[in-house]
Amino acid sequence: MNRRRSRKIRTLGVTGGTGFVGSHLLRLAIDQGYDVRALTRGWKPPEDEIAWVDGALDRPETLLKLCTGADAVIHVAGMINGRTRGDFEAVNVAGTAAIIDAARKAGVRRFVHVSSLAAREPELSAYGWSKMRSEKLVAASGLDWTIVRPPAVYGPGDRETFELFRMARRGIVALPPRGHFSVIHVGDLCRLLLALLDEPDTWGEMYEPDDGREGGWEHRHFARTLGRLYGKRAATVAMPRPVMRIASRLDRMVRRKNAKLTADRVRYFCHPDWVVAAERRPPATLWTPRVRTATGLKETADWYRAEGWLR
Predict the structure, then answer these.
(1) What fold, for 11-155+182-215+274-290?
(2) Residue 241 above 80 pLDDT?
(3) Of 205, 230, 264, 311, whose Cβ has the fewest other Cβ atoms within 10 Å?
(4) In contact, 227 and 171? CB cutoff 8 Å
């Protein structure tokens, strides 16, 4: 790709700013002096530091409003839990196409797309398939794009890894069959997203960041690390795939549309290797993780306690 000289980026258009990663990204961007425009589904009170745009990925006119006047777009919004492939396609594929179209119409060249490590194995889950499709759209967009595939993201405010903390506090952690996975603290991920903006050498690249742990975390080791936060030696139970399927049905019966352990996620979780590829790690001259995982996990556990999530 031809590396044109880019102008200094000061104004960001951000999708997914009301979610877990997006909310951390907005605060860090503000701290670093960026002007921020962020999409919100539903009214938000005016803020001096954030220009909220009432809109959604399926409302093209609001996406154009978000992008107008921005120097770059960071596309964070996406669906993690869905009932059907169509649900994921509507948000993760069509939504990505819509924000790309808005960026083009507004004349925004710089586009950073937050995908997922799940896109590496698109046949395993509808979620991974939809993220892979979104990556193809970005790569064909003609924009100055960079794709970031985070592994499991944790940190204060996260509702996905919270389940593991809650089980560890009780002293027993149910896990998928044996395997390894990578993690990253939300603060480190957000630092990377902002570090990419003014670096033309990252145009057309795909990165898989993590906490720097070679070979990732073995499931049981990670669970025991969580247990030590609560002064316990957490017992770990590896759940065979058939048992996880049953648990998924029970979760759907109890929590209905709020179920976390969907059938789609069972297929994803049972894959034994969700470790980032070493060759896809961001260059160390651009970014390296700062948060030691043990420290980040303790900070997250302390936040859950302080906010009353863990009693």
Answers:
(1) Rossmann fold (3.40.50)
(2) no
(3) 311
(4) yes
Q: Other C-beta atoms within 10 Å of 246: how many?
A: 12
Of the candidates 132, 139, 68, 140, the one whose C-alpha atom is nearest the C-alpha of residue 106 is 68
Write the single-letter amino acid at 60: P
For the whole model, what pTM was predicted? Answer: 0.91
Is the Cβ–Cβ distance between 30 and 49 less than 8 Å?
Answer: yes
Quote the CA–CA distance of 27 and 192 in Å, as a whole number.
14
How far is Cα of residue 238 from the mean position of the Cα atoms in its chain? Answer: 25
Q: How far apart are CA 185 and CA 290, in angstroms?
A: 9
What tokens does 301 get?
Answer: 């556990």
Residue with tokens 């109890």, as numbered in its chain: 254
CB atoms closer than 10 angstroms to residue 164: 19
Rounded Cα distance, 141 and 100, in Å: 7
Residue with tokens 């999708």: 15
Estimate the share of the chain in helix, then strand, then coil, as percent rounded to the nearest 5: 45, 15, 40
Displacement of CA 229 from its chain's centroid (Å): 24
Q: Is beta strand 217-218 parallel, antiparallel or unpaired with respect to 180-181?
A: antiparallel
Compute the distance between CA of residue 161 and CA of residue 297 in angstroms, rounded to an integer. Answer: 10
Q: What angle do CA 259, 263, 269 make, to 5 degrees?
A: 95
- % pLDDT > 90, the chain: 70
**Cα–Cα distance measured from residue 67 to residue 76, given in angstroms and rounded to the nearest whole number:** 14
CA-based angle 42:43:45, to the nearest 5? 145
Q: Which two tokens stand for residue 144?
A: 């100055």
